[in-house]
Amino acid sequence: MIKYKLICRDCNIKFDSWFASSSEYEKLKKRKFLNCHTCNSLNVEKTLMAPQLINSKTKYDTKLDTLKYSKIKKTIKNYQKFIKNNFQYVGDNFAYEARSIHYNNKKKSKGIYGSATKRDLKDLKDEGIEAQMIPWIEDKEN
Ligand SMILES: [Zn+2]
Known about the structure:
This protein has helices at residues 22-30, 56-86, 94-104, 118-126, and strands at residues 2-8, 14-19, 44-46, 87-91, 111-114. It has 142 residues and is α+β, with helices and mostly antiparallel strands.
């Protein structure tokens, strides 16, 4: 059994709660079974064992940023999946391929994607070729 000091972010009340393990705490939190004993809010968090050493505000903000980042990352991943399924990968030849489609009216059933430098993108734009730059996360993180 582990005793955690929990804090309610809504009414700022701290209270103790017992859990079988730290993973049980995570499980309960995920399933929204953790609520404030006073106001029933689900905005309840585990406080650190030595709260006097930690600036709780900083910790909270970092957590939010991590959350925001993983949300953005998920969006990008979905976007990448869509692109991979619907576009043809041309690697570093992006600028070349984009031009050949534009100038030779080369028919391609799919759009293309690949890597290009900022300089390439600027040149393409000057030539009236539409290219969209998107953030890309390497697959190796999976
Ligand atoms: Zn509360």
